[in-house]
Amino acid sequence: MSDLKDMVEDYAARFSRQDWPGLVSLMTEDAERREAGVPGSIRGRKDIERDMAPSPDISSMRMEVARMVEEGSLVVAEGSVRLTKRDGGVIHVLFCNLFEFQGKKIRRVTSYSAVEGSPA
Fold first, then answer.
1. Alpha carbon 97 to chain centroid distance?
2. Among 3.40.525.10, 3.10.450.50, 3.40.50.300, 3.40.50.720, what is the CATH number of 3-115?
3. Which of 119, 97, 80 is CA-nearest to residue 7?
4. pTM (whole model) above 0.90
5. Cα gap 58→112, rounded to integer Å
6. Domain map of the chain by residue range?
7. Per-residue confidence of the chain (120 residues) as pLDDT tens digits?
8. Rounded distance, CA 95 to CA 80, Å?
9. To which H or E segment does residue 17 belong?
């Protein structure tokens, strides 16, 4: 596996541990996070860290990367996130994230996601 793909796996592991300071340490200082369908973007490590934290009704989050494709400084990762709610409910989110790198740091993450089982 390439260094960039290893970084995406590390990102997923830190996400699953809810290690937000560790996750943003993988990013450039001026990193950007975008979600398809949501206007604008989140810029900078501090704002991304604040935005990543789950709502109070979520007790755990687990990100699994199913496959990745790498082209130059871009890694496309497909996978799922399992959100466990404090009341015991579970939400499955399918995603395709585009990770753009600047050197060995993540410069931009663009996320395309949908809740599994929700109407299109």
1. 7
2. 3.10.450.50
3. 97
4. yes
5. 21
6. 3-115
7. 799 999 999 999 999 999 999 999 999 999 999 999 999 999 999 999 999 888 889 999 999 999 999 999 999 999 999 999 999 999 999 999 999 999 999 999 999 999 987 655
8. 6
9. none
Strands (E), 1-120: 27-35, 42-43, 58-71, 74-85, 90-102, 105-115
Distance of CA 96 to the CA centre of its chain: 9
Per the structure block, which two tokens stand in for 90?
């579970």
Residue the block writes with tokens 């590390």? 10
Strand-pairing partners, residue 60, are 84
Instruction: Identify the residue whose tokens are 């200082």.
Output: 29
- The CA distance from 35 to 28, in Å, is 18
Residue 74's φ and ψ, nearest 5 degrees, are: -120, 135
